[in-house]
């Protein structure tokens, strides 16, 4: 069995993205944004495990044409999201118009990797059994947003993560934004909340603060990661996924936590300047880190 450096597991979605400037129908989901971003870095062995309906297989065909290794888990339906953004791109209203099947242990028995990113879009995408199984193969990374969404009558409601303590003890990297952090821990203070998440088992806690930067905690140090001011704000969809892409890519390559965080933040800045996935180069990211105006987080 081939062992990959990085594996992303997640549903590819149908997305309707509404902003004050436009309405766009496009594929989406962590699996989509992560794969399209990381394909620009050819010095890493990456694979995607995606679940979607047959009607969306053209998205997989397109990824494969761009040399992305894709394993498909068939689903009766693809996830269908509607994202409506206000002028402030940090504010979003979301609905789910269709759901896909959860992932299973059987579907992933032939997949091996050093790092698994579980791209959860909804709370029931990944069971505790599956997380435990994958954690015996490699490090687990999770973006919390999917675990904090419940769908009722197509509307998305924020919920706490039902079995968070059982799952988080298997998680090496967890990304949360400030609101998700508060839902999970009941705390608004970044330091105290990060310490709580670490106490539950998370080794590297990534707290993103939108345009104000991000903070990373590893149990010993708090790293203030600057935001890099964009030239224009066009579409924030997928920015969190892009941040995670940059961070895991750099960590997989041996970068320090701080350097990985800066690379992640600069990638997210480049992504927000256009619609669709990140479409830059490593050199573009490094140039932003060196030359863009920085906003240092305060906490």
TrEMBL record:
Pfam families hit by this protein: PfkB (PF00294)
One example GO MF annotation: kinase activity
GO CC list: cytosol
InterPro entries reported in the protein's UniProt record: PfkB_dom, Ribokinase-like
Record keywords: Kinase, Transferase
Keyword Nucleus: no
All residue ranges annotated as the Carbohydrate kinase PfkB domain in the record: 22-278
Gene3D superfamilies, per the entry: 3.40.1190.20
Name used for this protein in its record: Carbohydrate kinase PfkB domain-containing protein
Natural source organism: Dysgonomonas mossii DSM 22836
């Amino acid at each position: 069995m081939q062992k990959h450096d990085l594996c992303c597991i997640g549903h590819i979605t149908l997305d309707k993205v509404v902003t004050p400037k436009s309405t766009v129908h496009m594929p989406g989901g962590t699996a989509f944004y992560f794969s399209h971003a990381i394909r620009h870095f050819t010095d890493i062995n990456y694979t995607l495990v995606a679940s979607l309906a047959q009607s969306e297989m053209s998205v997989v065909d397109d990824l494969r044409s761009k040399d992305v290794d894709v394993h498909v888990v068939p689903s009766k339906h693809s996830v269908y999201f509607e994202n409506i953004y206000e002028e402030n791109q940090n504010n979003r209203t979301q609905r789910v118009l269709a759901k896909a099947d959860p992932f299973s242990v059987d579907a992933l028995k032939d997949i091996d990797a050093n790092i698994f990113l579980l791209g959860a879009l909804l709370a029931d995408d990944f069971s505790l059994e599956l997380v435990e199984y994958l954690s015996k193969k490699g490090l687990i990374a999770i973006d919390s947003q999917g675990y904090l969404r419940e769908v009722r009558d197509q509307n998305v409601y924020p919920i706490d993560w039902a079995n968070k303590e059982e799952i988080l003890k298997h998680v090496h990297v967890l990304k949360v934004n400030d609101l998700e952090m508060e839902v999970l821990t009941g705390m608004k203070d970044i330091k105290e909340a990060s310490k709580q998440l670490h106490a539950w088992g998370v080794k590297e806690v990534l707290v993103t603060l939108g345009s104000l930067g991000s903070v990373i905690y590893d149990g010993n140090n708090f790293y203030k990661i600057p935001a890099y001011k964009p030239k224009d704000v066009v579409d924030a969809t997928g920015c969190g996924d892009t941040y995670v892409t940059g961070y895991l890519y750099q960590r997989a390559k041996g970068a320090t936590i701080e350097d990985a965080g800066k690379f992640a933040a600069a990638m997210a800045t480049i992504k927000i300047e256009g619609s669709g996935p990140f479409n830059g180069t490593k050199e573009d990211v490094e140039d932003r880190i060196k030359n863009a105006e920085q906003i240092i987080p305060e906490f």
